[in-house]
Amino acid sequence: MKKFLIASLLILSFAYGIESNATNSTVEANKSITDKAGDLLGDLSNGTKDLVDKVKDSTTPLVEETKESATKLVNAIKQKTNELLDDNATQTIDAKELYSKCVGCHGTDGKTKALNKSPMIAGADYNATLTKLQGYQKGELDVSGMGRLMTTQVDGLKPEELEALAEYIEKMGK
Fold it and tell me: Which of 75, 107, 119, 142 could form a disulfide with 112 if both were Cys (CB 3.0 to 4.6 A apart)?
């Protein structure tokens, strides 16, 4: 029986030794794979960093160039806008030219009763005339049945043109 126990112990020892060697080689293989994976991740990380740096280096000049172009464009737009505003500010309204539409009914001096229906307009109060012109323009005024005709006469005039026309009519009486 002793021989059997000794043989069993030898077999177990031998089997354990093989298993132990297999376990050690598996652990070492796993360690080797882990090391290789770590090395690959390190290489990948460095490669990614290098790639990011290259992209940054190549795009930075483009970004700067785009900023400069945008700044130039904005400045050009501002300059053109200021020029247009200056042109509009220096344009004067020719009230006499505006009044030329009125001559047929009111006469060159504003002292003709339009179609013998309306009073003379020469020297009329500025505020009263402006209010009437604005009313005609909106289609809200119809003095002596002349609403439609007057609406077409003042249609499309800007507020500052109506003001200039009212001022011109007021000065005609002086």
Answer: 107
Q: Does pTM surpass 0.90?
A: no
CATH label of the domain that carries residue 141 = 1.10.760.10
Task: Say yes or no to pLDDT of 36 above 90.
Answer: no
- Judged against a pLDDT cut of 70, whether residue 33 lies above it is answered with no
**Which residue range(s) make up the domain with 115?**
95-172
Instruction: Quick: pLDDT tens for 70-90.
Output: 788 888 887 887 777 766 555
Instruction: Let me know if residue 90 belongs to a domain.
Output: no
Residue 115, in any domain of the structure: yes
Q: How far is 155 from 98, CA to CA, in rounded Å?
A: 12
DSSP state of 110: S
Mean pLDDT of the 37-56 span: 68
Sequence letter at residue 11: I
d(CA 168, CA 73): 43
Number of domains observed in the structure of the chain: 1
Angle (CA) 147-152-155 rounded to 5° is 115
125: alpha, beta or left? (left if phi > 0; alpha if psi -120 to 50): beta
What letter does residue 118 receive in the DSSP assignment? S
